[in-house]
Amino acid sequence: MQILTFLGFTILVAVIAYLKTRNTDENSSDGYFLGGRSLTGVVIAGSLLLTNLSTEQIVGLNGAAFKEGILVMAWETLAAIAMVVTAVFLLPRYLKGGITTVPQFLEKRYDKMTKTITSGLFLSGYVVVLLPIVLYSGALAINTMFDVPALLNVSETKALWITVWGIGIIGSIYAIFGGLKAVAVSDLINAIGLLIGGLMIPVFGLWAIGDGSLTEGFSILINTNPEKFNSLGGSKASVPFGTIFTGMMLVQLFYWGTNQAIIQRALGAKNLKEGQKGLLLASFIKILGPLIVVLPGIIAFHMFGDTLTNPDQAYPKLVTEVLPASLVGFFAAVLFGAILSSFNSALNSSVTLFGIDIYKSHIKKDATEKQTVFAGKSFGVVLAILSMCIAPLIANAPDGLFGYLQEVNGCYSIPILTIIVVGYLTKYVPAIAAKVAIISGVVLYSISQFILKPFVVGEENYPHFLHVMAILFVLNIIIMLIIGKFKPRVEAFKLEYTNQVDIKPWKYLKVTGIAICLIVVGIYVYFAN
Fold it and tell me: In 3D, which of 269, 299, 312, 336 has the Cα closest to residue 208?
């Protein structure tokens, strides 16, 4: 019954996505990469949430909450502020310039080589870190919920390989052969399912704790685990409170404002108004995110205590324990949709980056639209196979999946954010400054986290990686400004309006943005013990 429910919902999503996208022109760059610039606010919001909210987040963040409690909600709630900043500041500039990829802006602002280096950084981060972790965490959740090793009578390692390749192949079909609109439509359907299914887990969990009473369950949870409900945390926390004012906001701004896999949804907006509405709707729903990605981890701690050796198994174990058997199949299908969403979104963005920023720019400059799309698809197949080979090898990642993902991402997130911010805020900083900042950012962060921290200074005495990110961000900006002072551009940079979409802003943008920011601050104050 569980497997039938799982297959039924998964097939339903695929059929709806096909029917909604069969008339989209997949042979043009705008049609394939940006859904024909036709996405509305609701579709953008759903796709943004599902692209972000996948198993590396659901499994990894609940695993972190199992260990540390509500303080890890910083990864969720502060994202809302970053989305407001993106809607107000970055998106109008992106749509004014009519870009398809973030590195395209860097070509206009700096030069072609800066764009290519940045695209290469994005792609290396996707294939080595993001795609494999999404596949691994997804396979771990599916294997735990369905007990795949016993079902197929194979070892846990072999079951992991089988599930990883199954997810990877299906996700590749969506991303490579369907384009952005197929990804976005399937995301919207799965977003609704995930919100319903995700909220069911804490509800059933609290019912189980409170013997059928939600309020009693929540009261017991807070009274017996008060240390898990402190939003500030101690100095040894994975997210010390001070990092909120340093690297945390930089990471959030990079992720929601410059990460191609995320911002591509807003770049496909039919106009600025719809793009801003999509971002703000997603940011409001994101505030509710801890109910799905933090609270279940605390419930799992209360129910299972120290019996779990791997905190990343807390969420799938809680699902199988508290959900009625008839609903496990539906939830597994929704979770499977979330896995596919993050995988195929990153893969679709990788296809976009390669096709436009590398193939058409360097390999075949006179390529037609159709040839560019085909080259991107071919590259996507290779990238998918590589990520499926790497995924099973990252089992037992240090410090849990989510912490590992965020720390390693720093290698490329801060350098890219630096050159984009300086690019928009200055007019005379030259291309050489961007190249120096990218190289110094990658090299210095790598030396800091993978040489100095483990082998020279030691884990205990070293600054938190989010503080290191902030220090290097400021350092790289200073380097760029100094170079700009002594070797400025000949002509001031001016962002031209391409008239591809209407860039009139949403009239309720500022008031809605301020309200969202105040809600986030209020949540922190309420849980500050």
Answer: 299
Q: What is the block-wise mean pLDDT of the chain (529 residues), using blocks of 10 residues?
A: 64 64 50 57 82 76 91 91 95 86 86 88 81 84 83 87 88 61 61 79 94 93 92 78 90 89 81 93 90 94 84 87 82 77 72 81 83 82 86 65 74 92 94 96 94 87 92 96 95 86 91 96 87
Residue 457's pLDDT is what?
Answer: 86
CA dihedral 82, 88, 92, 95 (to 10 degrees): 40
pLDDT, residue 32, reads: 45
How many alpha carbons fall within 13 Å on the CB side of residue 239? 28
Tokens (6 digits) for 479: 């380097």
CA–CA dist 374, 385 (Å, integer):
17
Whether residue 339 contacts residue 131, with contact meaning beta carbons closer than 8 Å, is answered with no
DSSP 107-150: HHHT-HHHHHHHHHHHHHHIIIIIHHHHHHHHHHHHHHHHTHHH
Phi, psi of 271 (to 5 degrees): -160, 170
Instruction: Return phi, psi of residue 506, to 5°.
Output: -70, 135
Nearest to 202 by CA among 300, 280, 285: 300
pLDDT for 3: 65
Kindly report the backbone phi and psi dihedral angles of residue 98, in degrees, each rounded to the nearest multiple of 5, phi listed first. 65, 35
Q: Give the range of the structural domain holding residue 476, as residue numbers without chain letter.
A: 2-496+504-526
Counting the structural domains of the chain, the total is 1
Are 98 and 355 in contact by the 8 Å Cβ rule? The answer is no
* 357's tokens: 């920023």
How far apart, in Å, are the Cα atoms of 100 and each of 202, 295, 384, 412?
39, 37, 22, 20
Asked if residues 191 and 335 have their Cβ atoms less than 8 Å apart, the reply is: no
Query: How would DSSP label each residue in 167-193?
Result: HHHHHHHHHHHHHHHHHHHHHHHHHHH
Take residue 298 and report the two structure tokens written for it: 């605390």
**Domain holding 263: CATH number?**
1.20.1730.10
Q: Which amino acid, 196?
A: I
